[in-house]
C-alpha cells in the first residue's frame, strides 16, 4: 500500500531501495526556504544495515504489512535459537543476532511474536518487560543521597542495569527489554 512520506511513523515497515526497512526515527522538517521533508532513520530487516534518508513530502513509499504469528522460545542450539509454533507445534531455528541485545532476555517457555514476510521470519518481538533476579549489586556509597543516584547491578542473564540504591542482590526486578533499564521491583 502506497503512503505519502509525511505518513511514515516509527515502526512502519517500508519496501524501499530493493529491501525491507523498519522506520526507527522520524523527523518532519519545514525549512524556511524550499519544501518540507521527512528525515527518516531506517533499519534493514534482512541484514541489519542502517540508513538515513530524506523524503520530500510529495514522495510516496510502499508500506508493507507483515504477518504475525505466536511462537514459544524453547532453547538455544549454538548460535541458533529454537522456537515452536503455538498452533501446529512445528519448530523453527533462527540466528541469535536477529534479536540483537534483547536475546539475553529470552527465558525458557517465553511467548514471542514472529513477524513474517512471504512466510519468512523477519523479526522477533519479545514482551516489553521481563522479571529478572539481581545476582550482584554494588554497595551504596554513603552520603550519595541524591534522588537520581543509581548503582550498577548484574542480572541473572549477565546484563548490567542501573538500579536504585535500596535494591540489593537476590531481589527480583522488572526490566525493560529494549531499553535495558530498571522499571520497578517485582511483586
Task: Give a written overview of the molecule.
The protein is mainly β. It has 3 domains: 2-64, SH3 type barrels, CATH 2.30.30.30; 67-125, OB fold (Dihydrolipoamide Acetyltransferase, E2P); 129-185, OB fold (Dihydrolipoamide Acetyltransferase, E2P) (Beta Barrel), CATH 2.40.50.140. Helix content is 0%, strand content 54%. The chain is built from no helices and 16 strands. The strands form 3 sheets. The chain has a 6-stranded antiparallel β-sheet, with no helix packed on it. Strands 9-8-7-10-11 form a 5-stranded antiparallel β-sheet, with no helix packed on it. Strand 2 and strand 3 (19-29) form a beta hairpin. The radius of gyration is 21 Å and the shape is flat. The relative contact order is 0.13.
Mean pLDDT: 85
Spatial order of the strands forming the largest sheet: 1-6-2-3-4-5
CATH class of the largest domain: Mainly Beta
Low-pLDDT stretches: none
- Share of helix among residues? under 10%
N-to-C span? 45 Å
| Tally of distinct domains | 3
Proper CATH architecture of the largest domain: Roll
Q: Please outline the major beta sheet.
A: 6 strands, antiparallel
Number of discrete helical segments: 0
Order of secondary-structure elements = EEEEEEEEEEEEEEEE
Count of distinct strands: 16
Shape: flat
